[in-house]
Amino acid sequence: MRNDLYYALKPLIPRRLQLFLRRVMVLRKRRRLSSVWPIDPAAGARPAGWNGWPANKKFALVLTHDVDTQRGHDKSLLLMNLEKEAGFVSSFNFVPERYNVSCEVMDVIADSGFEIGVHGLKHDGKLFSSRAAFEEQAVRINQYIKDWGAVGFRAPSMIRNLDWIRDLNVEYDASTFDTDPFEPQPEGAGTIFPFWVEAGEGKNGYVELPYTLCQDFSLLVLMKDKGIAVWKEKLDWIAARGGMALINTHPDYMNFTRLRCGLEEYPVAFYRELLDYVRDRYAGDYWHVLPKDMARFWKHGPNVAAPPVGTTRTVKEPERVESWHHEV
Q1: How do the domains of the chain map onto residue ranges?
Q2: N or C: which terminal CB in the chain sees fewer CB atoms within 10 Å?
Q3: What is the fold, at CATH topology level, of the domain defined by 2-300?
């Protein structure tokens, strides 16, 4: 109900005021929740039966991007080329019915060895408003999944229902996180490893890929951190525990020019610094794959016990996180 109210009022709230209010709340909660963010110590536990990553790599690395707006779509190839130059690959999750998704852009991304995923349908906060609404939209989402040759999905704003997502024809979902109490649905999966969501009632099972490095918007736009110390700290912690470092960033908020950053931008050099840090500090130690390859490995490779569908661990805090979303 609170999320529905937010989306009803959102057009009446100036964007600058939205950001200001969200920033005040997030910074207040950041101080109070330092024991579970950016690191939740309990999330580092290894799954039962875990035998390690391929080729005895120390940890896994997965790069993903949600493309929320036309502005982000139009910068996608700039980001892809930056990663390609640095020796990395990633997935780009596009919103099918919010802006013009170019087939030419998707073809370039796919032909370059990167991945295309589906990011909701309209990014309007209504996908999970009711079971009937989800079922209706799932038909169209599945058509885009087929047309785009996609195998992965991520729910906008991480508002999700893992049971319902089984209606989608995907190999993996990426709508959860290990710990992120600033999201509108703040319950974390409590793990830095993938996990399997069981099939049931004629529905599909799939691999769930939680993001384990905080989103760029939260860290660099809302909190206005002047560097990536938090990303480095969390990456080092994940590497030490042999987990999966999965990050979700947005070309929408990256400034690829030398000009002053806008209201919702940060220098793309911050992201490039993270890639350089991984490559230089952990050369030869990480298993870097696309999300689809991680999902296939987890489904067919490791001998691990699967948690029940929808397994989450609630972050304990004095008050629930307010629902001020980050999309434009």
Answers
A1: 2-300
A2: N
A3: TIM Barrel (3.20.20)
